[in-house]
Amino acid sequence: MLCLHPYCPLGSPVSSWAETLDRPELKLRPGIEKSALLSSLNSLFGAPPSKPAILQSAPTTNAAALRRLLRSCPCLYNQVDLAPSAHAIVHLCELSVGGRITDANVVEAFKVQHPKTLGWAYPPARDFQGMGGTIMELLCSEVLTSAGIPAMELDNKNWPVWRMPGHILLNEGKMNDLKALGDILIPCAPTNLVISVKSEKAKERLLYSANSIEGIGFGFFDTPSEFWTKRRMQLYKRMGFSAIYMPDTTLDILNLKLDADGNRQYAVNINGTALYRPLTQFCEDMHNVVGRSAFDL
DNA sequence: GCGCTCCCCTAGATTCGGCA
DNA sequence: TGCCGAATCTAGGGGAGCGC
Length: 297
Description:
The protein is an alpha/beta fold. 34% of the residues lie in helices and 8% in strands. It has two domains: 17-130, no CATH class; 141-296, no CATH class. It is built from ten helices and six strands.
C-alpha cells in the first residue's frame, strides 16, 4: 500500500513532508494554510513510526485536508491521537509483517490486528472503531494487488476505470450499489467472479452472500465444522460458490473430517475441482482466471 | 450439543443543504 | 468551488433462540 509518509519504514516515494504536500491527491491550496501544515508536520512528525505509539495532536484543523493527508499517509495513525481507518490498519499490518501483504503472509497479517493477539510492530495510536469486515476486504485487495491484480482506480464520477488485470472493490464509489452481491469483483468470462470476504466465522452470511452468482469465499475461518456437513457443501455449490479459501490449519482439520466421514466427494465445485482451498493458493488461482475463463477455477 | 436462522446494535458510507 | 455537519441508509458482528 502506497504511503506518502516520508519516514514510512517500508519506504516512500517522497523524501520530505514538502514533497508529500505537493502531491496532487492532497489537493492543498498554496498559501498560508499549506505553509502552516508543513511547519506542523516538520515539527511534530519528523520521525518514523514508533512502538509504543505517539499521541500527537492533529497537524491541521481542516477536517477535509486532514482526511486526505491521513488517507495518503497511513503511518500517521501511529503518531496522531485519532482512531485509525481500515486502510491504516492494513498498512500497519504491512509494517508488522515487514513487507507487502501476499497470500503467503495474509494470515499472519490478519493475526497482527486481531484483538486476541495484537502483534503490532508499530501500533495505531488508538483502537480501531470501525467494522472489521472492511479490514478483511482490504487485506484481500492487498493480496490481489501484490499478485499483480490491482484495485481499479475511480474516475471523477466514482465509477471504476476498467483495466486488466485488475479487481473492483464493490464497497467503493458508485459500485457500492452492488455491494449486496459481494465484496470484490474479478472480471472473467462468461460471468465475472464475485469474492465474498469474511473474518473468522462464515455462519449463514457467507452462504447467502453468493446470490447464485459465481462466487468465491475468502476468509480467515477458524471453525471447520461450519463447512463439513454434506448439506452445507451442497448449499455452497447451489448458491454458486466455486471455491472457498481458508487458512491451512482450518483446511487440514476440515479435510481430515471429510475423509473420516467419507464426504470428500461433496467438496468438489461445479468445475470438478476442489471447493475448499488454502489461502496460499488464492493468487495462483486468480491469475489463472482473471480476464479469462471462470471454468478454469 | 449441534446446525441453522433471525434479530439487534453499531459504525461506516453516502447524500444533501448551508456556508465561506 | 470546496468544505462542513446532520440525517439517513446499510451491512456485518455477535448473540439469542429454535428444532433435531
